[in-house]
């Protein structure tokens, strides 16, 4: 009998229960007991759901109140000193590391003011993890005060009658994905492995004592370009983690091709290996050959990153190839990765076109997929399931929904001229200086302002039809005017309209483009309590009419200062959607570039001559390994952006924005934007920006963390700017936040922006 396995399940709850209770706890509207109880309820539901579906191997410890990597930092006492001074409860330490904490002293609580740890993208996904931060004084130990979370949750499932396989990020990946604290910049975190392994081993021993016979250890860095010294660590490390009194280990990799690092894990003393064949089927023959006679192979054939229905016949064919080589008792049918990256349940989508909905599987439906495939290759009769699946696959392939001849005809017009500005940057800069006459250290924001409860209520009323279109537009115009007047009042130089009409930076545009489908409850965690509803690209993309011109023109009519037109770039629209899997991402990105080109030109024609086309996902989409695929990606990603932005005159200033990724100047040079803004507030080393000192165009450096509620003082901004000016020229430096202010409240937004502008004015006086 071939077993079925799920590497992890979404933890947010089908109706975003985790978000609601977490934010209630942060705002002191829920107790810690209520928070923990809701977490326990979500976990129980997930385990029972998988058990009822017939999944054989169910993960535990896949739940987190914030981030699974941050959980390990708390568990292993990797807690920078600044969080240990305030006698916080463990759950509050976790949240302080994840999002910062700032509160005034009360009769029962001491004052706290501490910034968050750095947050970056989890490989090439839109999930963000909190980067572990190490120092020479890091003392690894099991943090008993926080509770041994993997053990607690394993026992919790066992009490419910569900035997689970605990999942833990592996020791080498955990260290490799971390960074050194600013006071220990000479430290290479991977050098701490010998100190870390005994503590990691003690966790495994605790799990074994609790009854766990097998654990899933995730080593996702095996799909990266690993230096030889890191590859060599695997053998010795896993020899230490196996033996008497310890559980068996299934080593898992995902998101890519492990072959360049295959020698690192060949013949490791682990009981099983898992590989992602949804993302990298080309590795099949070599990795199967590397499975030893004593190991099982977990075949990841159900995609954990996308929502398209698994082709059961193709999946069974691949699994059967593994069975031919290894036998049924040594093969497991699995999801390619955790299902964290997919929405919870397609059954909650009552408004989707049923024709299109038949093409999808969300996390709950993917449980059925792994079970069906496991039954089929085991010899059970699932003919009806396979016939229905084949019918769905064929219907999508033959659907007219996926093809637009006009779009395909226009794609043939893309050439170098279409994707090149009419003049080089120095000529454009001269025209822009004459037009805008901006001061030194020009100030701006990234786009969105707080999405208040009032905005959400009115949007909901309009969606439900309880207010008219005219009433809703009047409300939106009032919100825009409020944002414009505030920006004028505090002295910002280049304004934004605040985006009150937008539900999400990708969904808003997707809803106005042909070729997209949308969900009602298709939420996916991006970080912490920030969830997104990725739209789904189902066909060729085009723009029937203007999408953002009306609001931008209204905002500009209210002020003499320049107001930026705000758009989301083609690569980000692609990456933050669920993309098609039947045409290349290059084709989809260029289609989006053409659609946005029309919007950029309409904005310019309407008098909006500062236009920001955000591309925060351009680094995220970078192939995980160097080589031709990465080079090709950078070429078509930059071309897509330039297709969107190159049809404007020299004096129209094109901005772009990037956040929460490790950027290389080469990733942005090819865009040829006039101004780019990048996340910088959580970078401990100002020398990071030195890499950009030769970048010819202008850069706005994000000076405060918009994902944290804390308010930086003016003095904090001044200190940060002074550090930057040691390595970066003042005449190319724009001043702005890290990202949009959508998730923040008005009080903290006003205070933070006021302090930021005041700091910029101080430096203008100096320079």
UniProtKB/TrEMBL annotation:
- Per the database record, which ranges form the Cobalamin-independent methionine synthase MetE N-terminal domain? 4-324
Which is an annotated GO molecular function term of this record?
zinc ion binding
Q: How is the cofactor bound?
A: Binds 2 Zn(2+) ions per subunit.
Keywords, A to Z, come to: Amino-acid biosynthesis, Metal-binding, Methionine biosynthesis, Methyltransferase, Transferase, Zinc
Provide the residue positions that the database annotates as binding Zn(2+). 657, 659, 679, 739
Tree of life domain: Eukaryota
Cobalamin-independent methionine synthase MetE C-terminal/archaeal domain location: 441-761
SUPFAM superfamilies, A to Z? UROD/MetE-like
Its pathway? Amino-acid biosynthesis; L-methionine biosynthesis via de novo pathway; L-methionine from L-homocysteine (MetE route): step 1/1
| Listed InterPro entries | Cbl-indep_Met_Synth_N (IPR013215), Cobalamin-indep_Met_synthase (IPR006276), Met_Synth_C/arc (IPR002629), UROD/MetE-like_sf (IPR038071)
The residues the record assigns to binding 5-methyltetrahydropteroyltri-L-glutamate are: 19, 126, 576
Family affiliation: Belongs to the vitamin-B12 independent methionine synthase family.
Q: What is this protein called?
A: 5-methyltetrahydropteroyltriglutamate--homocysteine S-methyltransferase
């Amino acid at each position: 009998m071939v077993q079925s396995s799920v590497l992890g399940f979404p933890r947010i709850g089908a109706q975003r229960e985790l978000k609601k209770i977490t934010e209630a706890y942060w705002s002191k509207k829920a107790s810690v007991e209520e928070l923990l109880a809701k977490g326990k309820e979500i976990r129980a539901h997930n385990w029972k759901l998988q058990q009822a579906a017939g999944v054989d191997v169910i993960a535990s410890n896949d739940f987190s109140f914030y981030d699974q990597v941050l959980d390990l930092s708390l568990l292993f006492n990797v807690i920078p000193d600044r969080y240990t001074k305030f006698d916080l409860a463990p759950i509050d330490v976790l949240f302080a590391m994840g999002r910062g904490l700032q509160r005034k002293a009360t009769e029962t609580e001491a004052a706290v003011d501490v910034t968050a740890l750095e947050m970056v993208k989890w490989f090439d996904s839109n999930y963000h993890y909190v980067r572990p931060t190490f120092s020479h004084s890091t003392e690894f130990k099991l943090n008993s005060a926080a509770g041994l979370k993997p053990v607690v949750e394993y026992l919790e499932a066992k009490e419910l009658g569900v035997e689970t396989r605990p999942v833990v990020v592996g020791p080498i990946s955990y260290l490799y994905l971390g960074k050194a604290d600013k006071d220990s910049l000479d430290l290479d975190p991977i050098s701490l492995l010998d100190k870390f392994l005994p503590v990691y081993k003690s966790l495994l021993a605790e799990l074994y004592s609790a009854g766990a016979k097998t654990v899933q250890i995730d080593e996702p860095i095996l799909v990266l370009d690993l230096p030889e010294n890191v590859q060599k660590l695997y053998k010795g490390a896993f020899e230490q983690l196996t033996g008497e009194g310890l559980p068996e280990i299934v080593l898992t990799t995902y998101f890519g091709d492990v072959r360049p690092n295959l020698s690192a894990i060949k013949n490791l003393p682990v009981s099983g290996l898992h590989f992602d064949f949804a993302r990298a089927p080309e590795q099949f023959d070599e990795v199967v050959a590397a499975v030893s006679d004593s190991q099982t192979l977990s075949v990841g054939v159900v995609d954990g990153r996308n929502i398209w229905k698994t082709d059961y016949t193709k999946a069974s064919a691949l699994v059967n190839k593994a069975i031919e080589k290894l036998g049924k008792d040594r093969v497991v049918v699995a999801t390619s990765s955790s299902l964290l990256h997919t929405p919870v349940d397609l059954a909650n989508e009552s408004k989707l076109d049923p024709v299109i909905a038949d093409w999808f599987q969300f996390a709950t439906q993917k449980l059925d997929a792994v079970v069906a495939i496991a039954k089929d290759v085991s010899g059970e009769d699932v003919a009806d399931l396979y016939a229905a699946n084949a019918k769905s696959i064929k219907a999508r392939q033959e659907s007219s929904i996926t093809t637009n001849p006009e779009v395909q005809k226009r794609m043939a017009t893309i050439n170098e001229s279409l994707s090149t500005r009419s003049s080089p940057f120095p000529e454009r800069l001269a025209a822009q200086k004459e037009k805008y006459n901006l001061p030194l250290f020009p100030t701006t924001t990234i786009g969105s302002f707080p999405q208040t409860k009032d905005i959400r209520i009115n949007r909901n009323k309009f969606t439900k039809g309880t207010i008219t279109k005219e009433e809703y537009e009047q409300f939106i115009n009032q919100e825009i005017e409020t944002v414009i007047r505030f920006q004028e009042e505090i002295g910002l130089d280049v304004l934004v309209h605040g985006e009150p009409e937008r539900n999400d930076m990708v969904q808003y545009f997707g809803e106005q483009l042909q070729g997209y489908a949308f969900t009602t409850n298709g939420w996916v965690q991006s970080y912490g309590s920030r969830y997104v509803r990725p739209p789904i690209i189902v066909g060729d993309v085009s723009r029937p009419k203007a999408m953002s011109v009306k609001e931008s023109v209204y905002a500009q009519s209210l002020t003499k200062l320049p107001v930026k037109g705000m758009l989301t770039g083609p690569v980000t629209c692609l990456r933050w959607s669920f993309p098609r899997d039947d045409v290349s991402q290059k084709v989809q990105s260029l289609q989006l570039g053409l659609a946005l080109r029309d919007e950029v030109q309409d904005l310019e024609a309407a008098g909006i001559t500062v236009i920001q086309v955000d591309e925060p996902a351009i680094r995220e989409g970078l192939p995980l390994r160097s080589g031709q695929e990465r080079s090709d990606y950078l070429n078509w990603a930059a071309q897509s952006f330039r297709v969107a932005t190159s049809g404007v005159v020299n004096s129209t200033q094109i901005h772009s924005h990037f956040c929460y990724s490790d950027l290389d100047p080469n990733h942005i040079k090819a865009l040829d934007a006039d101004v780019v803004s990048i996340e910088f507030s959580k970078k401990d080393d100002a020398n990071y920006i030195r890499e950009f000192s030769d970048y010819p165009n202008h850069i706005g450096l994000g000076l405060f963390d918009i994902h944290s509620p804390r308010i930086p003082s003016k003095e904090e901004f001044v200190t940060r700017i002074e550090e930057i000016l040691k390595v970066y020229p003042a005449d190319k430096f724009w001043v702005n936040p890290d990202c949009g202010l959508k998730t923040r409240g008005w009080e903290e937004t006003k205070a933070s922006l006021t302090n930021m502008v005041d700091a910029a004015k101080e430096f203008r006086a100096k320079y």
